[in-house]
Amino acid sequence: MNHNGVNPGPNRPPLIPPQTLKWLLAGFYGVLALLFLADGVYHRHAIFPWEEWFGFYAVFGFVACVMLVLVAKHLLRPIVMRDEDYYDR
Predict the structure, then answer these.
(1) Which domain holds residue 54?
(2) What is the pLDDT of residue 28?
(3) Domain presence at residue 12
(4) pLDDT per residue over 39-49, tens digit each?
């Protein structure tokens, strides 16, 4: 079987070492934590009172993302789903 550089195969080392992935994830979570904490530092010109709550936009964004995934999975998927042999017919 011919393996290329993108998929090195089962007996070869991974493209990105696990230690590098751990450092990248730690950096990513660190940036997320700093951005979340920065929410309490600056003044917002909010229209509605709940926009001034600490972490409102982080929670709102997370809930909106989860809702988009659930709507796509449970409402849209049955509409656009085709049989496995749809193009073979």
Answers:
(1) 18-82
(2) 96
(3) no
(4) 888 888 889 99
CA distances from 61 to 9, 71, 87 (A): 38, 15, 38
The more confidently predicted of residues 13 and 70 is: 70
9: left (phi over 0), alpha (psi -120 to 50) or beta: left
Structural domains counted in the chain: 1
Closest CA to 55 of 37, 78, 73, 72: 37
Instruction: Find the DSSP H helices in the chain.
Output: 18-38, 56-71, 77-80
Asked if residue 33 belongs to a domain, the reply is yes
Query: How confident is the model over 73-79, as a mean pLDDT?
Result: 91
CA distance 39 to 50: 14
| Range 29-45 average pLDDT | 89
